[in-house]
Amino acid sequence: MPVIAPMPAARPARIPNQRDGSEETTAAGTTVDHLTETYRTHYRSLLGLAALLLDDTASCEDVVQEAFIRVHSARKRVRDPEKTLAYLRQTVVNLSRSALRRRILGLKLLSKPMPDMASAEEGAYDQLERDSLIKAMKGLQRRQREVLVLRYFADMTEAQVAETLGISLGSVKAYGSRGIAALRVAMEAPA
After folding, report:
1. pTM of the model
2. What are the start and end residues of each CATH 1.10.10.10 domain in the chain?
């Protein structure tokens, strides 16, 4: 198994001082301690920022932690330690946007759910009931069958049925009630 030696600590860059020609030492990027302290101090405000953009607490916490990890890995690019919080905030906003985009894309790609399907037994039972109803309807008088079909299957009012068949409203009511009574007898009779 290979042994991995730790990386030597980077020396701070030396920049010549413009005034007197001497060199001064500056830190290259934000220190880990400063970043960690900024994160601890502003964690709740960063979480609140993410909560304004996202809807669930778990996602907000994930976004804030991911922002810390990303800024930590790129801390050398944050030259001014005073801007660490601004980098964290911007990273939280960007990660929240990405999370929302992924959700929207996921919703678009989800297939639509299948409608509730009846079991095979229910389908067979429904078919038997339909067959027995059709058989019973064929046993009715022609006018009774016409009135029931127009009234209940075509969803017409009694007045519309009367107008369609050219009979009186009283006749529609009489044919309808006699037809339903005959259907009850036919459907209850053993096959």
Report:
1. 0.44
2. 137-188
